[in-house]
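Supplementary Note 2. Why include the ligand at all?

Several targets in our set were suspected to adopt different conformations when bound, so apo predictions alone were not considered sufficient. For every target with a known small-molecule partner we therefore ran a joint prediction. The input for flavin-adenine dinucleotide is given below.
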Amino acid sequence: MIVKEKYFRPKTIEEAVSIAGEYGKDFCFMAGGTDVMVNKFQGNNSTSCLIDITDIGEMKQIVKSGKFLKIGAALPLDELSQNADIKREFPLLIEVAQAIAGPVIRKTATIGGNLLCENRCSFYNQSEWWRDAAGHCLKCEGDVCIATGGKKNCFSKFVSDMAVALISMNAWIEVIEPGGGYMAYLEDMYSGNGVNPRKLKRDSLIKSIYIPVGQKFQSVFLKLRPRESMDFGSLTSAVTIDKNGKIKIVLGCIDPGPIIVHGNSSDNRQEMIRNAVKKSRIVDNDFYSRKYRKEMIAVFLERSFMKLLS
Ligand SMILES: Cc1cc2nc3c(=O)[nH]c(=O)nc-3n(C[C@H](O)[C@H](O)[C@H](O)COP(=O)(O)OP(=O)(O)OC[C@H]3O[C@@H](n4cnc5c(N)ncnc54)[C@H](O)[C@@H]3O)c2cc1C
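The joint prediction is reproduced in token form.
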């Protein structure tokens, strides 16, 4: 097989966006490459041009910006977890960064790449020959979801741990597109559609993540996975409570998008838990069974409430 790949390493955002413009649909941005390259080897990403954004200095900084802490999207998770401002203001992010993959992957894996890590499913994240044998699913140009037998919806799991934590802290993203840019609430970027899990345009680049400071959150992050040393989550939860008693529950790995439930410290806890379980569209597409993961939602949320509200 002759592989004709083109590899670019721009020094500025303008250059990156302009190269993207030249390649139309046949490119992808790459940061740490820990998700992109796996998808390439599994035949789930056939673009011929890679635009490596890791030389863009302004996308690797952490700076205060008005009422926000601004984190460059190309900052590796390992560097993020050693930053003094993050340690002081948002210790939750350190805990979450250190729960992603293993130490070697975290040296290159970036925060922005994590937010855009592709949805996963045990019938999709397989080699090409495996998928040829089992039959292609909705996420790879087939006409049926192998997990459910349905023909309409893909239930690939939203797996970004950083997104779960950042959404629980009301984070924003700065997006650059050819000819402009905009700010958006991070949670609004996710579509809940397993085939196209994000609402971003193909040539959009996430430049920075903005977290409002002074929210004085207390938070609990929990993650279920077979091996703590490196596996993706089978269920993740982040629960925050702010200084005014506002609660935000965010769940990952149990639906094609993040599940979000808002509440107050005076609200009925069981009602909030029931609401979260009801919203989640869990199917059997993971190492653990659907039934077990569903039961674990209530267990995780009970544990979080016990820590935060007792
Ligand atoms: C063994 C293993 C275990 C893992 N465990 C976990 C886990 O527990 N939790 C978890 O959340 N993830 C996990 N991952 C997935 C992945 O390593 C992380 O999500 C990582 O943070 C992705 O970052 P990256 O910089 O390597 O992304 P890349 O692979 O470079 O990119 C990922 C996607 O984001 C796009 N992209 C990257 N940066 C930008 C940007 N700034 N703007 C626009 N598009 C961009 C790319 O085009 C691509 O679509 C694991 C991966 C492996 C291989």
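The pocket of flavin-adenine dinucleotide is lined by residues 28-36, 38, 53, 73-74, 77, 100-101, 105, 109-110, 112-114, 116-117, 159-161, 205-206, 230, 232-233 (CB under 6 Å). The chain has two domains: 56-126+134-212, 218-309. Comparable summaries for the other entries are listed in the accompanying table.
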